[in-house]
């Protein structure tokens, strides 16, 4: 539901500059333009999402980081050894994972001793669920909604897309900064360019990913034999929990996740369109 931050980005290597007498661009700009050409060639169509994705970073590039993060989490965080909790997560998880078309790889599940209702997925096939989430859900359908959402991130290649998006923004900011040089605009880009990219591109894009994962998650729930409408009930419970803790449900400008109200309305709209 609130996935761990993406692994460190692998930046594109610098490209050699081949001097030509007729080139009038300043020296730092041409390598960045060549890198941008590489970026533009990284688009791929994702049939599950029905849109193109920029994927200059691949899932396999993130797998090693995911394995390390999973090992580190297991080493530094207490996990539940209660057989019933672990069996429940594994049983529901495998049904959803198979329905998502991801059953051809081994998956690891762990229940973490954290009272906050949360779950996450890591590249490489690892799902973590907290005891707080297990205590909050009313039934296996709602648990399936959570795991389905996480499986949706995997099918959508969201981790790789997020990493590609951040890498691209750095390249484009480098091009703009080099072109602006020492002008006032150049100084503005240097001082605030990262923040502009964060609030103008990266955070809204992450909210879009979350809504996509919600939609894919209910698709997987339905295929696995669970009740898709329980996903709405789950988010209503989350909304009530946030309100009870005094957390505002709005204020999306600086949030990487949609508001609970928006998620509920978008899910209801999607469920109605599917006749569920």
From TrEMBL:
<keyword id="KW-0378">Hydrolase</keyword>
<dbReference type="GO" id="GO:0051603">
    <property type="term" value="P:proteolysis involved in protein catabolic process"/>
</dbReference>
<feature type="domain" description="Peptidase M48">
    <location>
        <begin position="83"/>
        <end position="269"/>
    </location>
</feature>
<dbReference type="GO" id="GO:0016020">
    <property type="term" value="C:membrane"/>
</dbReference>
<dbReference type="Pfam" id="PF01435">
    <property type="entry name" value="Peptidase_M48"/>
</dbReference>
<keyword id="KW-0479">Metal-binding</keyword>
<keyword id="KW-0645">Protease</keyword>
<comment type="similarity">
    <text>Belongs to the peptidase M48 family.</text>
</comment>
<keyword id="KW-0862">Zinc</keyword>
<keyword id="KW-0482">Metalloprotease</keyword>
<dbReference type="InterPro" id="IPR001915">
    <property type="entry name" value="Peptidase_M48"/>
</dbReference>
<protein>
    <recommendedName>
        <fullName>Peptidase M48 domain-containing protein</fullName>
    </recommendedName>
</protein>
<dbReference type="GO" id="GO:0046872">
    <property type="term" value="F:metal ion binding"/>
</dbReference>
<dbReference type="InterPro" id="IPR051156">
    <property type="entry name" value="Mito/Outer_Membr_Metalloprot"/>
</dbReference>
<dbReference type="GO" id="GO:0004222">
    <property type="term" value="F:metalloendopeptidase activity"/>
</dbReference>
């Amino acid at each position: 539901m609130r996935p761990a931050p993406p692994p460190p980005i692998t930046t594109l290597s610098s490209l050699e500059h081949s001097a030509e007498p007729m080139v009038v661009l300043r020296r730092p700009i041409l390598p960045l333009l060549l890198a941008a050409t590489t970026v533009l060639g990284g688009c791929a169509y994702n049939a599950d999402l029905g849109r193109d994705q920029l994927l200059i970073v691949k899932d396999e590039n993130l797998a090693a980081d995911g394995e390390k993060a999973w090992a580190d989490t297991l080493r530094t965080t207490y996990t539940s050894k209660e057989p019933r909790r672990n069996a429940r997560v594994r049983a529901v998880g495998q049904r959803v994972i198979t329905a998502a078309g991801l059953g051809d790889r081994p998956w690891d599940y762990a229940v973490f001793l954290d009272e906050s209702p949360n779950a996450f997925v890591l590249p490489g096939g690892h799902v973590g669920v907290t005891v707080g989430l297990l205590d909050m859900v009313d039934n296996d359908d709602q648990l399936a909604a959570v795991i389905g959402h996480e499986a949706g991130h995997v099918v959508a290649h969201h981790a790789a897309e997020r990493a590609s998006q951040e890498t691209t923004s750095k390249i484009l900011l480098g091009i703009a900064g080099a072109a602006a040089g020492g002008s006032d605009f150049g100084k503005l880009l240097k001082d605030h360019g990262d923040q502009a990219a964060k609030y103008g591109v990266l955070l809204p894009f992450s909210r879009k990913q979350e809504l996509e994962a919600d939609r894919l998650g209910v698709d997987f729930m339905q295929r696995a034999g669970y009740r898709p409408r329980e996903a709405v009930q789950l988010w209503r419970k989350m909304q009530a929990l946030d309100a009870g803790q005094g957390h505002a449900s709005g204020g999306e400008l600086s949030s990487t996740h949609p508001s609970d109200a928006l998620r509920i309305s978008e899910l209801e709209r999607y469920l109605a369109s599917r006749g569920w």
